[in-house]
Amino acid sequence: MFRFLRVALLAVLSTVAIRAASAVEPAADTTPKADASRLVFLLQYVGADYAAAVADGKIVDHAEYEENREFAGQIADLLARLQPSIPPGKSAAIEPPVRRLVELVEARGDPRLVRDASESAIPRLVEVFELRAFPRDRPDPARAHALYAENCAVCHGGAGGGDGSRAKDLDPPPARFTDQARMSEAAPYVFYNAITLGVANTAMASFADSMSDQERWDLAFYLWIFTLGNDTRPALPPAVVISLRDLATRSSRELAPEILRRAAAVGQPLDAEGAERWVAELRARGLSLPKRARASVSIARFV
Ligand code: HEC
């Protein structure tokens, strides 16, 4: 189900394995911060993918379950390695949810609880290790557009359909950013991690060395452009304020109910699809919203 992400995760895990196998092998980045990023990526993965493995205390997909279990083991190992770097006052906020997630997976616990544990630990890891879960500056769609055409379209396709000129030779094939279900569940922070870390055993390289941090964020936000189809008219934003942090770290599906609630409260009712579309507009077109919308007193804004 989350094959793209799973392979990306293998890249993370193989780095861990290489490090474990040989202390002298120079790893890509051995700082606690890098380990914390890997841990976040693992938590993002299990938090989302475990639901495909277990339902009502029963394994519904053995391969998925084994994989999630293995990842939970890696999560436990990473936590153990990170422990000395966690300030004593902070460990109470990080270790319990991470351990709970590991235990829940082992015990075939409720996927919702696994997701809760993941969602509770990630912001705390981000805080303690000062990870960038959202960009410093507003993502720039024009810059992303140019970067995409130059670096990504050859595989992912000019319209994000995974059908660039190199795609036919690639196994696995490039991700499709037109896949509504995937785009609804993902968040720019997840894509940022994939673009930054690369995807082992696939054609997807790390762009950490060739692009600035901000450029990788620009792209991670921009990829929602491909869910918007040919309609270039930006949807008028509802009267809500949404933070750049939320736009970066929370999925469209997670954000939609909150947007609906706030929009309804000020008499701008939307449906769920409209709310998700609006999230996509804001991520992918950001500053290029029309003047009228920007001037409106009820403009949604980045905070
Ligand atoms: C040489 C081909 C190639 C190029 C160039 C390339 N990618 Fe990829 N990308 C892939 C492949 C193949 C995958 C799928 C890997 C897998 O199956 O997990 C992928 C996966 C991804 C994913 C993960 C999607 C998900 O659903 O988790 C993101 C995000 C991504 N690419 C973004 C980019 C961006 C942005 C660029 C340009 C800076 C880029 N890629 C350039 C081949 C490429």
Task: Give the topology.
Layout: H1 3-21, H2 32-49, E1 54-55, E2 58-59, H3 62-82, H4 88-106, H5 111-128, H6 141-151, H7 153-156, H8 180-185, H9 188-197, H10 213-222, H11 244-249, H12 252-265, H13 272-285, H14 291-295
Antiparallel strand pairs: 1-2
Helix pairs in contact: 1-2, 2-3, 2-5, 3-4, 4-5, 6-10, 9-10, 12-13
Bound molecules: heme C.
Residues 3-5, 7-8, 151-152, 154-156, 166, 170, 172, 174-175, 182, 186, 191, 194-195, 199, 202-204, 207, 219 line the site of heme C (HEC).
What does this protein look like?
The chain is an all-alpha fold and 303 residues long. The protein folds into two domains: 3-128, Four Helix Bundle (Hemerythrin (Met), subunit A), CATH 1.20.120; 132-149 and 178-303, no CATH class. It is 58% helix and 1% strand. It has 14 helices and two strands, in the order ααββαααααααααααα. The protein has helices at residues 3-21, 32-49, 62-82, 88-106, 111-128, 141-151, 153-156, 180-185, 188-197, 213-222, 244-249, 252-265, 272-285, 291-295; strands at 54-55, 58-59. It has a two-stranded antiparallel ribbon with strand order 1-2. 39% of the residues are buried. The structure holds heme C. Heme C (HEC) binds next to helix 1, helix 7 and helix 9.
Structure, briefly:
This protein has 303 residues and is mainly alpha-helical. It has helices at 3-21, 32-49, 62-82, 88-106, 111-128, 141-151, 153-156, 180-185, 188-197, 213-222, 244-249, 252-265, 272-285, 291-295, and strands at residues 54-55, 58-59. It has a two-stranded antiparallel sheet.
